[in-house]
Amino acid sequence: WKYRDRAYRYCLLDTGHLLENLMLSVRSHGFKLRVFYDYDDHLVNSFFGLDTEKEASLAVCSTLHDESQDLVPARHTWNELPDKAQEASNVSGREVKYETIIQIHTSTLHPMKRYNGSARMDNLLGLVTRDEMKIKELPSWPANLSYSEAVFSRRSRRNFINQPMTRSQFDSVLDALCMDRAPASGFCPISVALITGKINSLSPGFYLLDREVRTLRIVRKGRLLENMASICLDQAWLANASLHILFVSNLRVLDETMGSRGYRHAMLEAGRIGQIIYLLATSMGLGCCGVGAFYDDEATRILDLNESSKPLYLVAVGPVKAIK
Q1: Are residues 40 and 169 in the same domain?
Q2: Structural domain contains residue 305
Q3: pLDDT (tens place) for every residue of the chain, 324 residues total
Q4: DSSP per residue, 21-79
Q5: What is the reported pTM?
Q6: Is-contact 22 59, C-beta < 8 A?
Q7: What domain range includes position 174?
């Protein structure tokens, strides 16, 4: 595999992107879709005949008539699949088995804890903020494409150019992030932070977004895009973006409040919200590219997070070279 032991993170992020695409597609046809992150993995995997040494379900979706209805699987047992069906799981004649990935996934199979507290992830990252800015609800966004056109045009585009993002484009990104803030579990496992560069009428700096009360608070001013580009394995193109959107979580608190399955939840949510940004950026004619490769500890230090808080995913946004 290209990503080796880190590949599990990419599987979760990509699944989150797919989930959001599915949710939007179903809703565009007038149906309701409910996503479950917490379910009996063994029953679902057995029902679909998955080879649990190589395959796994990561989320379950249902078009329920009653959205308050819980997903209660029937307690059945199924016969073992024949060898020919099991062999269909092989993707090549020689496969490398990454024990770390299996161990990590196995540790997330426990049911999610039910959180009844009032703590919010935004307040658990160790960040000191100031200068609060209120985020307005916008009647519309400066989009040039319809939803279906944005879906078909969506690509990872990273040929960013030295041109600022307009303030209306930036405000639209904030509005979209704030509109999507209802986690399936009642406890939001991630926070959203932003590193800004060239954006009209906004100072470069590191900001924390409070999606619940719709405010943007400054952590510190100054350019950090180059620092993040270096931390992301020296991917220099990241420094040319106008905006880095970071999905961050306190992993210790996440484990204490949601159990080991909370990690899956957090990564899926990061990918799902990342897809919203991809589609919005595409509709506004901006480039967008997600990054999961970075030095975790260095990122924690440069962002002044406490030691148990880590970035999970980065999505870069900004003007790109026009396609001729």
Answers
A1: no
A2: yes
A3: 577 788 899 999 999 999 999 999 998 888 888 889 999 998 888 888 888 878 899 999 988 655 555 555 555 666 676 777 767 767 777 778 888 888 999 999 988 877 776 778 999 999 999 999 999 999 999 999 999 999 999 999 999 998 999 999 999 999 999 987 555 556 789 999 999 999 999 999 999 999 999 999 999 999 999 999 999 999 999 999 999 999 999 999 999 988 989 999 999 999 999 999 999 999 999 999 999 999 999 999 999 999 999 999 999 999 999 865
A4: HHHHHHHHTT---EEESSS-HHHHHHHTT--TTT-----EEE--SSTT----------P
A5: 0.90
A6: no
A7: 121-318
The rounded distance, in Å, linking the Cα atoms of 205 and 193 is 11
Question: Contact 104/9 with Cβ under 8 angstroms?
Answer: no
Q: Tokens representing 91?
A: 């993707």
Statement to judge: residues 194 and 253 lie in one domain: yes
How many domains, the chain?
2
Amino acid 146 reads S
Are 269 and 291 in the same domain? yes
